[in-house]
């Protein structure tokens, strides 16, 4: 699931809504379609007793591994998922390009340790798209003149390993930064403060409680809420924005001063867990910091960004705190870091994987029911909970329908997205190409552009063909219900469809939305797009965007349950006489 750390802070206040009575939900205008019990029983049997979801996920994570957008592993995953679904009997399997996105990035090798005054290894990971310490090694020899002459006279390739002094950048504002002018060149710079770690007396994992589910069920339709004047916690928001601005200025200063490596503290986690995402690009802070979220800016996957970055690493908090305290105690600390990466500029496009179960009703087979999740991941883990789980569940839901011998009236289309972590790029481009776009108004994250025109829906060729899209992207937890996106018309339908799964813990409907994932691409243009409510398990505390996002953190029984429920929802949507009602 995509995280927008700063933007999300400001969006939070637009998404918080007071509760309302469950009784406000609209009554059905017509009879609700439900599949015959024997069909639901077939789905349950295939999904719970003959599941292949863990085999699918194991290959995707343990064999293919991390799947950074633009990288070779993601392309391999695109092809493998396509081929696997075709082997199961699905049709029209293909990769659909979008973009251009930018350059690929691959980690060749990395290690880090304190080497003086004595040696010990540290747990750390490079940030995605960070340059390597041997960044010049990939520049073609012919770029500086005659290729043969260059090959004969060129010096040895730059080393990917350095040993350098460690400096703590203790700067809270621009005046503090001035004290470090001319002192950082060639140094390994600690960018963060120490972070306190307290004993965990409650455990990382948790499931949604009955009280939490009831609160969700009573949430009011977001569209009916009148926002009150002012912004809650404005002082706190201002302080967060200031910290963000100061962080941008520190990053730009360190990069321009020619530091060798920038190292920061994992913002969350303990026990060696490292939360790490993408490298920072030197950028000027706009006069209005909020413009940072609406104006186009250089991204680390842009080729031009390499000249405005230095190697960047995130370290586990226990190790980072120790190194920082050694420096603060007056010890001369040196670290040895080996970092080599490979950029790939051969194909700037990225790809979604598409495959279908063809519809059987001559009048309805041109209509679509879609399901999916995003296949791209961050690079320190193997993208198991974020979001190999959603990919495996969507694929398994389609397999269940076929293996159960069911014949959907509408065509069922599985879509496995890429570029979700960088901005819902895969799904939003797909929706634009096939279904339409909303011009003007807030962007896909809900951030308004003050210069944008009044929102206008431009329908695509297939807009009226889509009945609904179902998404899974909240980790390994089992399904507890559905976020209905403020669509009261689907409540009678989804309530009936959840009834056979109440004994599996799925019975909650909420008018609330969960943000940051691919159903928003559909919802934004008025198409029914839904994300399932899931138990949080260890998602925010341990796995989301961390090195612990691996296969071993997956709950197999939850995955089977999720795939079974998704299969039932998708199949019944494909069998209804009418399309899913819109809000």
Condensed summary:
The protein has 583 residues and is an alpha/beta fold.
The low-pLDDT segments are 4-28, 136-149, 227-231
| Helix content, binned percent | 25-40%
Count of discrete alpha- or pi-helical segments spanning 4 or more residues: 16
Strand content: 15-25%
Shape label: elongated
Radius of gyration: 25 Å
Distance between the termini: 25 Å
* CATH architectural group of the largest domain: 3-Layer(aba) Sandwich
CATH homologous superfamily caption of the largest domain: Zn peptidases
CATH class membership of the largest domain: Alpha Beta
Q: Major sheet, described briefly?
A: 8 strands, mixed
Q: Tally the beta strands.
A: 18
How do the helices and strands line up, and which of them pair or pack?
Blueprint: H1 5-15, H2 37-49, H3 53-64, H4 72-87, E1 91-98, E2 104-116, E3 120-121, E4 124-126, H5 147-153, E5 161-168, H6 174-178, E6 188-190, H7 210-217, H8 234-256, E7 261-265, E8 312-315, H9 317-328, E9 334-344, E10 350-357, E11 368-374, H10 384-403, E12 411-417, H11 420-423, H12 425-434, E13 436-439, E14 456-459, E15 466-471, E16 479-483, H13 491-498, E17 508-510, H14 519-523, E18 529-534, H15 539-543, H16 556-575
Parallel strand pairs: 5-6, 6-7, 7-8, 11-12, 11-15, 15-18, 16-17
Antiparallel strand pairs: 1-10, 2-3, 2-9, 4-8, 5-9, 10-12, 13-14, 16-18
Helix pairs in contact: 2-16, 3-10, 10-16
């Amino acid at each position: 699931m995509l995280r927008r750390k700063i933007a999300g802070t400001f969006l939070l206040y637009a998404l918080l809504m007071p509760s309302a009575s469950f009784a406000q939900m609209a009554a059905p205008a017509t009879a609700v379609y439900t599949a015959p019990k024997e069909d639901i029983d077939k789905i349950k049997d295939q999904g719970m007793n003959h599941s292949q979801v863990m085999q699918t996920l194991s290959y995707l994570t343990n064999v293919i591994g991390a799947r950074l957008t633009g990288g070779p592993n993601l392309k391999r995953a695109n092809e493998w998922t396509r081929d696997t679904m075709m082997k199961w009997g699905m049709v029209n399997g293909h990769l659909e390009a979008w973009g251009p996105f930018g350059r690929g990035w691959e980690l060749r090798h990395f290690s880090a340790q304190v080497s003086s005054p004595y040696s010990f290894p540290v747990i750390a990971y490079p940030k995605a798209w960070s340059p390597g310490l041997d960044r010049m090694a990939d520049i073609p020899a012919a770029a500086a003149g005659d290729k043969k002459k260059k090959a004969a006279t060129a010096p040895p390739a730059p080393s990917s390993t350095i040993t350098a002094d460690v400096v703590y950048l203790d700067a809270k504002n621009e005046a503090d930064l001035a004290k470090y002018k001319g002192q950082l060149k060639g140094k390994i710079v600690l960018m963060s403060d120490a972070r306190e770690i307290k004993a965990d007396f409650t455990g990382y994992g948790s499931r949604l409680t009955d009280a939490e589910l009831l609160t969700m069920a009573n949430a009011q339709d977001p569209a009916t809420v009148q926002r009150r004047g002012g912004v809650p916690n404005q002082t706190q928001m201002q302080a967060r924005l200031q910290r963000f601005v100061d962080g941008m200025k520190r990053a730009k200063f360190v990069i321009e001063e020619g530091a060798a490596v920038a190292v920061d503290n994992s913002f969350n986690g303990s026990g060696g867990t490292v939360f790490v995402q993408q490298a920072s690009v030197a950028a000027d802070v706009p006069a209005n910091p909020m413009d940072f979220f609406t104006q186009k800016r250089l991204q680390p996957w842009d080729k031009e960004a390499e000249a405005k970055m230095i190697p960047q690493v995130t370290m586990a908090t226990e190790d980072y705190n120790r190194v920082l305290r050694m420096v603060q105690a007056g010890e001369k600390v040196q670290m040895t870091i080996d970092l080599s990466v490979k950029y790939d500029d051969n194909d700037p496009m990225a790809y979604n994987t598409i495959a279908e179960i063809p519809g059987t009703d001559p009048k309805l087979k041109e209509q679509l029911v879609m399901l999916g999740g995003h296949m791209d991941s961050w690079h320190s883990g193997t993208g198991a909970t974020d979001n190999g789980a959603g990919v495996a569940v969507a694929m398994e839901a389609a397999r269940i329908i076929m293996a159960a011998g069911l014949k959907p009236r509408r065509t069922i289309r599985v879509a496995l997205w890429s570029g979700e972590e960088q901005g819902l790029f895969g799904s939003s481009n797909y929706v634009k190409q096939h279904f339409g776009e909303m011009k003007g108004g807030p962007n896909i994250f809900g951030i308004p552009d003050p210069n944008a025109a009044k929102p206008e829906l431009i329908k695509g060729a297939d807009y009226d063909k889509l009945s609904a899209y179902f998404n899974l992207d909240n980790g390994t937890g089992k399904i507890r219900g559905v976020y209905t996106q403020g669509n009261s018309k689907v409540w009678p339908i989804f309530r009936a469809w959840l009834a056979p799964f109440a004994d599996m813990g799925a019975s909650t409907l909420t008018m609330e939305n969960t943000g940051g994932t691919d159903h928003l691409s559909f919802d934004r243009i008025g198409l029914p797009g839904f994300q399932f409510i899931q138990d949080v398990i260890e998602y925010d505390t341990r796995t989301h965007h961390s090195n612990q996002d691996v296969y071993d953190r997956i709950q197999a029984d939850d995955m089977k349950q999720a795939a079974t429920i998704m299969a039932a929802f998708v199949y019944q949507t494909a069998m209804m006489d009418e399309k899913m009602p819109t809000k």
